[in-house]
C-alpha cells in the first residue's frame, strides 16, 4: 500500500511541475493571464500535496 501512495505522490508532483510551466507560459498571453495564474496556484498546491505524501511515506518506511 505504501508503494502505491508513493507512486501517486510522485506522479502528482511531476504533473504539478508540468502544469506550473504551462501556467507560466500562459501568463505571457494577455487573454489567458488569469487562467495561467489559477493553473500556477493549483499546481503549487498539488505539488505540496504530492511531495508531502512522498516525504511522509518515505519517512514512515525508514522507521520500520
TrEMBL record:
Chain ranges passing through the membrane: 6-29, 41-60
Superkingdom of origin: Bacteria
Keyword set, alphabetical order: Membrane, Transmembrane, Transmembrane helix
Name used for this protein in its record: DUF2759 domain-containing protein
Organism whose genome encodes this protein: Flavobacterium cheonanense
Source taxonomy: Bacteria, Pseudomonadati, Bacteroidota, Flavobacteriia, Flavobacteriales
Amino acid at each position: 500500500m505504501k508503494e502505491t501512495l508513493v507512486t501517486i505522490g510522485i506522479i502528482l508532483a511531476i504533473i504539478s511541475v508540468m502544469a506550473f510551466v504551462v501556467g507560466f507560459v500562459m501568463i505571457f498571453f494577455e487573454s489567458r493571464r488569469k487562467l495561467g495564474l489559477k493553473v500556477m496556484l493549483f499546481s503549487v498546491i498539488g505539488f505540496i500535496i504530492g511531495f508531502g505524501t512522498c516525504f511522509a511515506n518515505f519517512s514512515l518506511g525508514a522507521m520500520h
